[in-house]
Amino acid sequence: MDDRLRILSATVLQLETRTSIQNALDGTLTAPLGQMTSRESLLAEVLSLLTGRPVCIEDGFGNIRAAAGTKSGRPYPRPSATDRSRTAQLWLASGLPVQEPRGLVALVLPDRDVLGAMCLLENGRPYTADDVFALEYGTRLLQVELSHRRSIAQLELKLGRDLVYELVSGMDEETAAVRAEALGYDITGPQHVIVAQWQPPRTDDTVVVALRRTLRELQTPALVSRRSDITLAVATGDPLDTELFTVAARTLRSTTGAVGIGGPSRDVNQLPRSYAEALRALHIRVHSIDPYGLTRYDQLGIYRILDMPGSETDLSGYVEEWLGALQSNDARRGSDLVHTLAQYMDHGGNYDDTADSLAIHRSTLRYRLKSIRQITGFDLADPETRLNLHVATRAWRLRSARPR
Questions:
Q1: Nearest residue to 397 (alpha-carbon basis) of 278, 288, 280
Q2: Rounded to whole angstroms, what are the CA distances from 365 to 113, 358, 375, 394?
Q3: Assessment of whether the complete model's pTM goes beyond 0.85
Q4: Rounded to an integer, what distance in angstroms lies between the CA atom of residue 388 and that of residue 11?
């Protein structure tokens, strides 16, 4: 009887403790935020007080969105995509928090996508059963919050996506203003269009979410959408610069992407023009010597002339005049002299850089350049000849990349 009473007392004490944990965590869903910046911050603070441990809450990309009981700065490196996948597999297999070097981790994984994670950090003391219970319960509450937020975001995304399609296709200003206002977006004033594409091609909303987060971080109001594997946005203000690509690549944890930005539009009627410019900037970036990064239409320089619609006939004659002999030789012999010349011109005639880009030896490059001189009869040291050949090779590259 005494043993049973001890067991019963321990069970009652455990139930009281866990009920207290539940009540404290439940309160984070309705309590006023006060000085807290978000529900996640309040949840992390309460969980830290309950367990006596530092707590971090991550988003789906591994970025820390809330923390409590930690010193300033990131307490652990951001998990890689491989690490996060491994944690997800262990979480799905056991249904229990996963022990990681940074601490005990529980995931918000309602479907196939990781929406976030909650981490109970190490502090030198072993984890108790109550710690694990508090972490699991806190994660369930976090899942409710993040799932609700995702549902709202998906609805906003769909509404915004429809509006973006119509804006870049052309719509009247009055209708655009009413539709945009319903989404909390001010369509008046300077706007510009951004298009982005990552490799390998992504047909889900990964890049859409990352671009929205990037623009929010850069404090640039925008409507973001997707067409096939190209993400597009209508953004407020003057066109952004390279920082947009830097932040987006960091968010996606991938630099294998390209971004094109169209010129500024002073009213809604000019957005289709900005969209066309953004697509041209993206096209030129993707097929340039450095296919990853950001290109603004107003910084295209000579490419704005080379890629002009309607200039195909004149451009073909120009390319034929300067590169026709080399193209015929390449077709007949299966060589690659036009590409060699293009790389040589793009690298300013530098032998070492050109050889490295072609993955060939300097002597091989020297032999190819000698062949180019013999076939064309051109003096590659003549400034005017070099200018024309450089323009011709860039035009050749654009024409080669364009769908036929």
A1: 288
A2: 49, 9, 15, 20
A3: no
A4: 86
